[in-house]
Amino acid sequence: MLAGALALIGAAAHGKAAVAPAILLIGFASGALVPPLQSWVLGAADGGSALAVAANTSAYNLGNAAGSWGGSRLLDSGTDVAALGWAGALVITVVLAGAAVALRGGGRRGG
């Protein structure tokens, strides 16, 4: 849903009427992402819940910072603002594919 909302931003970046609902959808999608992710991390923590929550929150904030930095680099290079939505959707799609591959391994640990 988040990748779709970002793609919608890319498609509607120059149309004021379509951007507002897309931004609202981004807010809902990113807000809906946190509770199940936090729950999944806590379930996998095996007793280290405080550290797991801290690491998960840190990773989430690092992702926000990286996205802001990457978007600013695109804008500084002269890229059209519409490309930001498409770039965000691409990043999320790649991350989802990587997560799917990692989860398909069944949580196997090396060693």
Topology:
Layout: H1 2-12, H2 16-44, H3 49-76, H4 82-104
Helix pairs in contact: 1-2, 1-4, 2-3, 3-4
Give the mean pLDDT. Answer: 86
Distance between termini?
36 Å
Helix count, DSSP H or I runs of 4 or more residues: 4
Order of helices and strands: HHHH
Strand content: under 5%
Main sheet?
A: none
How would you sum up the global shape?
elongated
What portion of residues is helical? Answer: over 70%
Helix and strand content put the structural class at mainly alpha
Work out the count of structural domains: 1
Task: Please count the beta strands (DSSP E, at least 2 residues each).
Answer: 0
User: What is the gyration radius calculated from CA atoms?
Assistant: 16 Å
Residue runs with pLDDT of under 50 for 5 or more positions: none
